[in-house]
Design goal:
mainly alpha, elongated, membrane, transmembrane helix, transmembrane
């Protein structure tokens, strides 16, 4: 007679051991390209903010 705590989920818990495989997202490393991408965004934001400030100063002078 089975004990009270035994369940029928043994087939789900006891999985065979599998060899470890590398994940799909660890394949190609592009650190330098990603860094260039971030710097481009930073320069774009700084230039846009500078242009916005110059436009506000220009408008303030001519009103």
């Amino acid at each position: 007679m089975p004990s009270d705590h035994e369940t029928n989920f043994g087939w789900w818990v006891d999985k065979p051991e599998r060899p470890s495989r590398p994940a799909a997202f660890t394949g190609v490393k592009r650190h330098s390209r990603k860094a260039d991408f971030v710097w481009r965004y930073l320069v774009t934001i700084v230039v846009l903010m500078f242009a916005f400030i110059l436009a506000m100063v220009y408008l303030a002078k001519h009103l």
